[in-house]
Amino acid sequence: MNSPIIQLLVLAGVAVFLILKLRNVLGTREGFEKPPVTQKGPDATARREFEVIEGGPDRDIIDHVPEGSAAADALARMKRAEPSFGVADFLSGARGAYEMILMSFERGDLAEIKPFLDADVYESFAGVVESRAAQGLVVEAEFVGVREMTLADATFDDTTRLGELTVRFVGELTSVVRDASGEIVEGSTTGTKKQKDVWTFARNMGSDDPNWQLVATGE
Known about the structure:
The protein is α+β, with helices and mostly antiparallel strands. The chain has a domain at about 60-205 and about 215-219: Nuclear Transport Factor 2, Chain: A. The protein contains 6 helices and 5 strands; from the N terminus they run ααααααβββββ.
């Protein structure tokens, strides 16, 4: 047997040997595969965390009140009663309402804000305004801004569908009180003062009227 044929047979034998070794190491695909082994490690952990986020708590709620609190439960029920309700949207509106109501009160002009005040709150504000006028006092005020604002509490009555949200404000403004002669009896024209208020707004969730009313004030 000549040399080229012998070399060919040797190479063929080596090829067969290598194929058999590869089959032992890699296995073969014969129809149905075994179920994949559950992946462990960082990728699997990230996937589980993603699933928790997808089905997790409402960030619009727990960004403002503690998760699992009575306030969080009340806000969740408000959202079920009125799906378009958003806590962040409410607080944005409350910020604007705070400036509008506070400045109208300081200047003694309540006509514009009367629709946004509960009857008792309006009477209280009106009493202060009338008392100032009787003493000849005039308030000059300018709003600087809201420095702090937090949602302090939330309640919801499933029967009446009345939702109440209590907000803590820290505002900053300039304010002076002048007497009938124009003399400053309180405040300063050069400095600002902090105004701290705790206001409660109420509304029947799901009603056609989108406006909240100020139903209680405090500090």
